[in-house]
Amino acid sequence: xxxxxxxxxxxxxxxxxxxxxxxxxxxxxxxxxxxxxxxxxxxxxxxxxxxxxxxxxxxxxxxxxxxxxxxxxxxxxxxxxxxxxxxxxxxxxxxx
Length: 96
What we know:
The protein is α+β, with helices and mostly antiparallel strands.
């Protein structure tokens, strides 16, 4: 487990498909901070299968959470790294 926290966008800001920010080497996405929590609702590998998303997940601080996981592949990656889902009003929030 690391201490990395990705650069955050303003909460509520819109993101245009294809215009996601680089949030780590080889990883594009979107992150916002609300209170003490950093939410990362979008994670996209620049080169699928490169291992960069795994490295990114390994580097994240405990303040970082991943909401609304819809990819079985990402869910498996999170579980292998000690993340587990909790549910708040029907929304899954994956955290360590």
